[in-house]
Every structure is written in C-alpha cells, then in structure tokens.
Amino acid sequence: MNNKGLMFVIKSHHTYEQLKQITSPENVMADEYLDNHTYTRLGGRADFYVTPETYVEVQEIVKLSKKEGIPFTLLGNGSNMIVKDGGIRGIVLNLGRLSKIEVEGTKLVAQSGARIITASHKALVHTLTGLEFACGIPGSVGGALFMNAGAYGGEIKDVLESAIVVDASGNLLHLPADELDLKYRSSNIPDKGYIVLEARFSMKEGRYDDIKAIMDDLTFKRESKQPLEYPSCGSVFKRPPGYFAGKLIQDSKLQGKQIGGAQVSLKHAGFIVNLDDASATEYINLIHFVQDTVKAKFGVNLEREVKIIGEDPA
C-alpha cells in the first residue's frame, strides 16, 4: 500500500471512531451497500452509512463533516433518487430513526424520517383533512418537503406551516413555510444545504368517513395504474408544460423498452422499473434513451423529477 492509500485508511478509521462517539455504534455502518436502502434497489457502497437518533446527533455529524472536510450526503429513504453503481464517498445520512408523529389540535407535527403516507393516516385517525393527497406518496416527510411532493392536485406547500432544519454549519433553524420557497416539485432546501428534521402541518377538522373515502379512492387509482409490484423511483419525469410525460413516452412507443434489467413500465409509461436485477447504469441509460426519443419525436424536453447522485463505477 502506498502512502496515499495508507493515509486514506487512517482517516477512514478516525472518522469511523468519531461517528461512533456521536451516535450509538450500531447506528454507524462502514462500506454499506446502498441498494439495501433505496426503493429502486440500486446503488453502490457508502463509506459510512449513519442513522442518528436525535437532532443533536444530526447537528454534530454535520459539524464533523464540515470540520474534517468529509463529503456528506443525505439519502432520506431513497424513494425518489438513484444512487450510481460507484456508490457515495464520505458520510451518507439516513434519518429513518427520527420518525415520531404527533397531533396537537389541528396541527400535525412529523419528524423527517417518518413516511408521509404514515402522516396522512395519522391525520385520518384524528379526523384532520389536508394530507389525503399524500396517502400514496412513498417518500419520507423530509423528502416530501425537499421536493414539495404532490399528487392528485395536492402539494406539501398547501398544508405546511413551518419546519425545523439544520443548516450547512450545523445550526438548528425554525423556519416558516414561506422561507422554503416551495414551488412545483422544488424548494430551496437543496440550494441552502438544509437538512429537514421536523415539519409542522396546519390541518382542518373533517369527517372520518369523508377523509377515508378520498384516501381509498386515491389508493385505488394509484394501485390500479402504477407498477407497485416492481422496485422503482416513482414518477421519473416532471410534467412538461402543456403535456403529460407518460403520454409522450407512450406515444413514442417506448412502453416495454428495456436496457439490461431496467424497463419502461408496461402499466404506466411514466415509470421505469427494476424488472430484473438492473444496475444503476442501466436504469440511468434508459432514462436518457427516453429523453432523447421524446425530444426527437415531439421536440419536448423531459426534465427528471428523480435525483441522481453518487459516483460512476470504476
């Protein structure tokens, strides 16, 4: 081993020990395969995969990353992203252990690692209306804020009152919703380098039967139209102005198109599924193929809704 390789091993061991001092040792995994932690079942290894249990632990990990110059990536629950086959260097943070949801009158307070689906069902139990649209969104609460998730005419910005975040320096901030610049499938959270820890939703009182009827209807629509039987990253593309992405892909005769184990869904053209042990490279290549084909046929640029992170394989 040369000196450069030796220094990397020493620094990695030092980082590993520091992380275990911040959170419980069982919350720190070295050289962890990320395909175990993404909805697509794609992704290479993370140098360190960390699952903190408190807001203070998140702050300390962010501060460690900044102080030591260690790359830092927030994975969420991996429902709307693709991790490349080369994996991710440095620290990968997953907030799945921060999953508490509480109701205070007409306010629903959810930690970022909770599933937004779970939050919608908690609202139902307390007969609060406003989150019905989220009953089929597979992501976390933090991820839902990150991209202003929406479905069936509803969006996070419609009900979000405020959020608690950690900034890039490890400071804890309480922010009103209007400071997150929530727009169609976007926010300023990635640009600001924020990590969402908690969301506070402003709800309205409703009738249990009415809320459940809406959720049942939306669940039926989702299950009947979306290829939930296969791993995927959900809807791959944003809706282009004046068009529907799925219709453009369908009209391009791309349903069933396959590269390796990745396939444009036969059930819904807006989805790409991991049909047969696909690699991230195959999945990404199929996305590019779809974009190029639709552009050539209709002159429309399909913008990705899904985020691609990580490194290409060596």
TrEMBL record:
One of its GO terms (molecular function) is UDP-N-acetylmuramate dehydrogenase activity. Belongs to the MurB family. It catalyses: UDP-N-acetyl-alpha-D-muramate + NADP(+) = UDP-N-acetyl-3-O-(1-carboxyvinyl)-alpha-D-glucosamine + NADPH + H(+). This is UDP-N-acetylenolpyruvoylglucosamine reductase. It comes from Lentibacillus kapialis. Residues 42-221 form the FAD-binding PCMH-type domain. One of its GO terms (biological process) is cell division. Keywords: Cell cycle, Cell division, Cell shape, Cell wall biogenesis/degradation, Cytoplasm, FAD, Flavoprotein, NADP, Oxidoreductase, Peptidoglycan synthesis. Its cofactor is FAD. Pathway: Cell wall biogenesis; peptidoglycan biosynthesis. The gene is murB2. It is found in: Cytoplasm. It holds the Pfam family MurB_C. The active site is at R185, S235, E305. GO terms for cellular component: cytosol.
